[in-house]
Specification:
By secondary structure, the protein is an alpha+beta fold. The protein is built from five helices and four strands; from the N terminus they run βββααβααα. A four-stranded antiparallel β-sheet has the order 1-2-3-4. Helix 3 packs across helix 4. It starts with a strand and ends with a helix. The model has no long low-confidence stretch (mean pLDDT 85).
Length: 125
Amino acid sequence: MQIAYSSHVETLNHLPFHINKINSAFCFEEDLIQTICKGNEALFKKHFYYKAYLAVFEFDGKYPLINVLNTAYVVSETLADTNDKNKEEHELEQSLRSFMEELAAITSEKPIQAFLSKLVSTAMN
């Protein structure tokens, strides 16, 4: 698979994403673990992979960017409603906060798609 373009999502701890020749944006699993979960694979597996079902979208160690963004939103909402967070979960909640704030600032019927479109178009310029 050839990567046509690479950039990053600033509000998700500079999460790298890539666009291939057919304009499909995706993230590698290792990048998700390193950037969003600060290298904590167990935290990634617990909240993103199992609880939020990101595993459903996994293909060859990568995930569509739209599904990563949707999952980050869900994980953030879930952690906000959880009272008995450990230190790592508290840090994860904090790291997702700026993403939630930027997403909430976009007014659209489909905010994730609007955010993704803005992100990709900004990255391609």
